[in-house]
Specification:
OB fold (Dihydrolipoamide Acetyltransferase, E2P); five-stranded mixed β-barrel; about 10% helix; about 45% strand; flat
Length: about 110
Amino acid sequence: MAENAPAETTVAAKVTPTGKRKQRIGEVVSNKMTKTIVVRVERRFPHPQFKKIITSYKKFYAHDEKAEAKVGDTVRIEESRPLSKLKRWKLIEVVERGVPDVAVAA
């Protein structure tokens, strides 16, 4: 048992996020590019003057190495070094699968 303890701690150290990189959860809007997804992240905040809750959205381009995210999925992305002109995020995990579109025969 004592031999397994150091191995478990090293595995746990690899799984924890590195540094203080920002993470966001959003919905995949597009996956038509190779190894790239577009994620729409929702942000809710009160208006500075009128205090009404406002919902704003921002699109992030994220790197998806295995092309595992589909349109409609909820995903977690994390900051990374610049990978291209617009891509500065990478896919961490697919949190929830979206509902597949079913074609209705007319």
